[in-house]
Amino acid sequence: MADVLKGLMNNLEDTDKEVYSTIKNELERQEHGLEMIPSESFISRAVMQALGSPMNNKYSEGYPGKRYYGGNQYIDVAENLAIERAKKLFSAEHVNVQPYSGSPANVAVYFALADFGDTLMGMRLDMGGHLTHGSPVNFTGKAYHFVSYGVDKKTGLLDMDEIRAIAKKEKPKIIVSGATAYPRTIDFKHFHEICEEIDAYSMADVSHIAGLIAGSAHPSPFPFTDVVTTTTHKTLCGPRGAMIMSRQEDRLKEIHHKGSKWNLAQLIDRAVFPGLQGGPHNHTNSAKAVAFGQALRPEFSVFARQIVKNAKALAEELISLDVRLVSGGTDNHLILVDLQNKGIKGKEAESALDKARITVNKNMIPYDPSTPFDPSGIRFGTPALTQRGMKESEMKQIAALMAKVLDNHDKPDVLKDVSEQVYELSSQFPLYPGLKL
Ligand code: DSN
Question: Are residues 259 and 275 in the same domain?
């Protein structure tokens, strides 16, 4: 462990022992536990090296070939590599890799295509959407008039007929699809067809499932969706950051941007810079290029499919152990557990699993009778476990360990015993350099 860290960190131990030992502790926590937050993954050493590189030192407001600072010849090369690789990975016409993270990427799209106060539509946060899909506590919910959709109470699934009915009634300018806690396939084509009926832009926030899409383990929102946002650090396994992909032309120019001299790609670029951000984070963008290069390799598709296979195996075993899953299973990387039959709330379950070295997060479930601070569910997934090389047989073991914790959450000796078993299991799948991608 220490040798691995030394190789990655070179001078840090000598320069700053406090930060070094904190990072070492965090690496040990990651290595000797089961990282099951569905939005988390491990970066490869190559991505880490690009992140910790002198590309961090440069200012470069603008875009490749059109910068407001000198000395950007290599920054342009790196940004263009990221753009070209992302285009190839997702078959996107236009890509902007500069958004600092998922929230600014989503805000940039609204800023590009709508006016403040316009009606937009997205999934409710407590039904599985994201804060930036119009939550009232978020900037997006305050700056725009967001109307929302949820999932069906009985099935836990998106009800496309209801979504269409809301869209036809409210006539939003943008409909956002995509979620942070939805375990099923999203029908992006259907969303786009609804948008076509009401002359709305279709926007898909694929942050959670971008790696699955890149690896053909989930249907793609392209070629039909107008704008697609994604973070680059979840199933894509890249650095923390985001990108916006879009069509080149504005399909609705005559309706929404009559007389504008900008096409859709230009509207997006102008909203990111100078609209919302200043200098791009060039070390991150270089690391994005590395991550997209990794995702273009044939083994990434095998990995993406294994994430889903693992999630399905985990879900099946949990169900057999009387753990109730929202929607009754999963099609993707994510599982949402309804704890109401277990006599335990999300906060307590998260904490008990933490003590057993299993990291999940408490989460609202659809129609949750409880509050976001102590909701009735937990959310977890398989991307990080799959990166370590774990397969269906390990998922069975993990399901049994999780169920044991949930059923014995108030028994410290049981949690200690599971924690030791998790230590043992995780030690068989070393993180660095054993990471499988
Ligand atoms: N915070 C992310 C997640 O965990 O799903 C969403 O941005």
Answer: yes
